[in-house]
Amino acid sequence: MAVDHATDIRRIITGSVLIAILVAALWCRGWFLLGLILVASSLGLWEFYSLFWGPAGRIPSRICAIVLGCLMLLLTWYHRPQDALVCLGAGFVLAALSFLFRWDVIEEDNAFSASGIFMVGLAYIPLLLLPATYLSTTKLVFVLAAVAVSDTAAYFVGTRFGHHKLWPRVSPNKSSEGAIGSLVGCVLFCAIYGQIFGSAGWMAFTILGIAVNAFAQLGDLFESALKRSVHVKDSGFILPGHGGILDRADSFLFAMPMVAVVDQWYSFF
Question: Whole-model pTM?
Fold first, then answer.
């Protein structure tokens, strides 16, 4: 596979800027971190709906989803997760009303499909982002860094040594070699990070690293399948060399909730 050095440079520059913003947000926490989470959720939702509805389709629906998503994150930030779930339920009721109106009054053929896309967006982005509002800095850095190492190892190993396609129909550019490099890089990082900051043994962190990588790659493949289903290469263009917010956060969206659930049952830190 040919290596595009210009793309490499853009990816590195954009990645460096993102790291600087994330470090500042995690260092300051408070409103800085919350604001970053809300912006990421809003941009991610806009990109998601643009995949299916076009850049300017169904503006009221996507604005409603963004407001509900931000409320879910705000309420969880203020330790009211039960109210955040009420917002998700309210989204379902609105989607149901929209379906009934569009199907019966407007007689729209794809009325249910539009309502389903509305709900999937809420479940995919703000719901999966909820743990970012309450996980500690140590745990957030762990997930972010583990996913970044996974993605970086997959990209550089895949572009230089990738010869066997991992799942051509879902993601033509991903290779089995890149997936293996991603797994090895993630496991090594998790084991080292655990020895420095964790309270569990290296074996526990090795197993956690395997799980983090599995969910990260699943998230990457899921977002790739979404793009292929609507015949687009990137979810957006806001991040030079990376594409859109979802292109950068897809792995994180799947890995972070898994870590948050495991953290409730086993103490790694």
Answer: 0.90
